[in-house]
Design brief:
Elements lengths: L1 E2 L2 E2 L14 E4 L2 E9 L4 E6 L17 H12 L9 H17 L5 E4 L2 E5 L3 H14 L3 E6 L2 E5 L2 H13 L3 H11 L2 H5 L9 H11 L2
Antiparallel strand pairs: 1-2, 3-4, 4-5, 6-7, 7-9, 8-9
Helix pairs in contact: 1-3, 5-7
Length: 208
């Protein structure tokens, strides 16, 4: 990981943050600015953001039905009969946090943009992230459930209208390969030998 020409250290290859997200290294907070796929180098800039860095496990995608069920449980006042006292306490605290943060609402206006609460699974989350980033908007994961977009409202609305009206998976796959190092970091063993167009079509089928 580099700041300019200064080598700050190494990150685990399969758990790299996306451009715009934050990491802590050498005792400081950094925002990922660019990933150089060919050199396998990550370039960062100093950041003073308040959001804690995301620590990724590299696990499987979350199905939309999981997020939908999570939302139902959190927004329902009754508790399942099989929960013990500790589980009920944890669930109650989670429900209070959801109400306090109003995370059930889809769009939250912020000082410099919006927070989009998707509740739609990993693939939808990833696709929206790529589409907004490809539209040259500043976007990062707020949680596994939503995205923070720092841009004027009309720019955000325009990017989302384009995505919904004419989704272009190949374009997003090419963008993920060029700017998110998708092939190098998350591809299969022999993906480096696959022609770009074919690899991008494969990514469209299994990822976004």
């Amino acid at each position: 990981m580099f700041h300019g020409s200064r080598n700050l250290g190494r990150l685990q290859e399969d758990c790299l943050p996306l451009p715009g997200e934050h990491v802590i290294l050498s005792g400081r907070r950094w925002r990922v600015d660019e990933i150089d796929v060919e050199r396998k180098q990550v370039y960062v800039v100093p950041s003073r953001g308040r959001r804690p860095p995301a620590f990724k496990s590299g696990g499987s995608d979350i199905d939309p039905r999981i997020h939908e069920r999570m939302r139902q449980v959190l927004e329902t006042p009754t508790s399942p009969l099989y929960l013990d006292a500790t589980a009920i306490e944890i669930l109650s605290a989670s429900r209070a946090a959801i109400r306090h943060m109003d995370l059930g609402r889809r769009v939250h206006l912020k000082e410099n943009g919006v927070r989009l609460m998707l509740w739609a699974g990993t693939r939808v989350h990833r696709t929206f992230h790529l589409a907004l980033h490809a539209a040259e908007l500043e976007v990062e994961a707020a949680t596994d459930l939503g995205l923070d977009v720092s841009a004027p409202g009309d720019a955000i609305a325009g990017a989302l209208r384009t995505l919904l009206a004419a989704p272009d998976g190949i374009r997003l796959a090419a963008f993920a390969e060029a700017h998110h190092a998708a092939r190098a970091l998350h591809g299969d063993k022999f993906d480096e030998f696959v022609p770009a167009r074919l690899w991008q079509r494969g990514l469209c089928q299994r990822a976004p």
